[in-house]
């Protein structure tokens, strides 16, 4: 089976009702990254950071995967599919995708502030000051904040290098190192980009830009890469 590797971003979950970050009215229009999504923010105002992710978690718990998430599950019949997602929601997993790499962490998990290997499934939407790991230290959201290492990047690069087809869907490609993954795709391998707005990338001859929302764009992609 050919290897199909997908880099997804907030745009794939937009039609499920989750805000993107950089569109008009997106999350970063209403919050400052440096207030809620950096290690310094956590040191300065833990309550604000906890509340920001509690609200995200509460909202994400109410939404459902859309046809674009399900299309990626369907593609597993024809391809060996790996999804590298920048999203912290769990809609790829709920839809049923088998191989999902979360580059920026997972909203429904918490992590020890003492030992980053201690990661816990959350049973409620709320993470509070005083919620402790088994070593007795405060739990934090299991999110990769700006300025932090991206531990899953190494594996994401390896998977990307092996891709026969690479698909970019719903990401502005504004955040590194994730955005740099397109440069790890093997020479001449086809790259499909699905987005209603052109991401910040110069289109090369092996790239096909499908200027559509994720749901419609995935249908077009499937016609392009399968006989369906
Ligand atoms: P952005 O908000 O930067 O980009 C969203 C992309 O989705 C844009 O290119 C939109 O044009 C596109 N889009 C909007 N609606 C869409 C739809 N219905 N179908 C398909 N595409 C649509 O989000 P990301 O690129 O995911 O990181 O952002 C990358 C990272 O920046 C996030 O993981 C997050 C953020 O800060 C952290 O918080 C660490």
Automatic annotation (TrEMBL):
Deacetylase sirtuin-type domain sequence ranges: 1-228
GO CC, any one term: cytoplasm
Cellular localization per UniProt: Cytoplasm
PROSITE patterns assigned to the protein according to its UniProt record, in alphabetical order: SIRTUIN (PS50305)
One of the record's GO molecular function terms: protein-succinyllysine desuccinylase activity
Sites where the protein binds NAD(+): 9-28, 86-89, 170-172, 214
Pfam families linked: SIR2
Key word Cytoplasm present: yes
Keyword terms: Cytoplasm, NAD, Transferase
Major localization listed first in the record, in broad terms: cytoplasm
List of catalytic residues: 104 (proton acceptor)
Domain notes: 2 residues (Tyr-53 and Arg-56) present in a large hydrophobic pocket are probably involved in substrate specificity. They are important for desuccinylation activity, but dispensable for deacetylation activity.
Family, per entry: Belongs to the sirtuin family. Class III subfamily.
Function in brief: NAD-dependent lysine deacetylase and desuccinylase that specifically removes acetyl and succinyl groups on target proteins. Modulates the activities of several proteins which are inactive in their acylated form.
Name recorded for this polypeptide: NAD-dependent protein deacylase
